[in-house]
Amino acid sequence: MQIFRTVIAHRNLRSSRGTLRMDSEMGESLGLQAGDKVSLFAGRLSTPLKISMGPQQSRRSIDLSIDVLKQLHLLASGKYGICRVDEGIHLGPVVGIMADSGSDSNRPFGGQSFFISQLIEFGTAIGQICFAFSTNSVNFSRKFIRGYTYGKGGWKRGIFPIPDVVYPREAGYSMPKLQIRRKMQSLGCKFINPPLIGKWEIHKILSHHPTLNSYIPETSLVTSFHQVDRLLKKYDAVYLKPTTGSMGRDIIRVLKRTNSNLYDYQYQANSRPRIGTSNGLMGLRHSLGKFMGKRSYIVQRRIDLLRVDGNIVDVRILVQKDHTGQWLITGKACRIGRRGSITTNISSGGSASKVEKVLARNFSDPIQRERILTDINYLALEVAQALEVNPSSMGELGIDIGIDQSGKLWFIEANLRPARQVFILIGEPATRIRSVQRPLLYARYLAGFSQER
Known about the structure:
This protein is α+β, with helices and mostly antiparallel strands. The chain is built from 11 helices and 26 strands.
């Protein structure tokens, strides 16, 4: 674990409301002298204070009045990171995890509750004011949020400052959610990831990138089924994918029979496969139209993916930033689709395996296997860098890469809300823990908190 400068904020009954008391050594490390006037920040809340120097309970403690602790929603004897930015002293940082809430008080954020509890525990351990909240719990007029923290006693409700950094984990991107995000950004909140990048936008960005276009399968935005037919004349099968879908939902595979006007299709609805045949292109459009609805779709050539026991395989690579602000590969694993499935998603019944094990089953040449592993890392990092709109617009991506029968790599998809379950399935709990820690380390970077030297 990285070591960061932290302090204990003590409640001092004798401290005046307008005073921040510390010892001279800490004052010197922050570039402060007795009598200096500063603003003390906790997230988007702040209060003006005057620096007072004197002996403390320890060199890593500060004294604040009860009123200041209440105003900034700080806990007495709480451990906080500390840094100086311009004329302000910042505690924390304050990091909010934005997620959809549920009705179970023991699992207030549904299936993500365990993951979020781990985030909060690690953030708290390194001095962050870390909590989880839903978008309808933000009080903009008073700059606080009603949310949850987590500790030895389990989940606990509390009031927290509007954060320095938000880690978005909510599902869906409705207009009300986007409006909350924009309003928080207008107050100075930084978000670890953007709200959404559609598959067609991703395709356009990557296909025009000179080092990546050879990894991108031929793809078109579906404006008519003639585009589907055009790709089917070039390839034996295509995939139709919703531009804003995730977790393999609503994907359709279409094959055209040789020397025939018949089209075979397969998709999954209500967790059950749906298989059918249509006569002619208009018949295909009619058969799939109700399922596709008015959603926007892309059509993409099918890749002849590696298989394990007859089931298709791809590689999920988790790339993240930490306190350095640089992209790093946290871990990777192969996802194996369940029998008969057209996707590899774990949520749809898929399984997982170590990448090296799958490669050894498909390629006898160790030099080729090593080259594939190197190329996987290269492609994942290149994709992450290419998709960044600006240097701090992203903090993590789940990147899916396909490997065909010849060993060639293909970019499949990039996910802004990657799951971590795959690392448990392949027996790498340490990788999963690292995947939990890195977003919070990146939050320190975004908030301007530096590593202690």
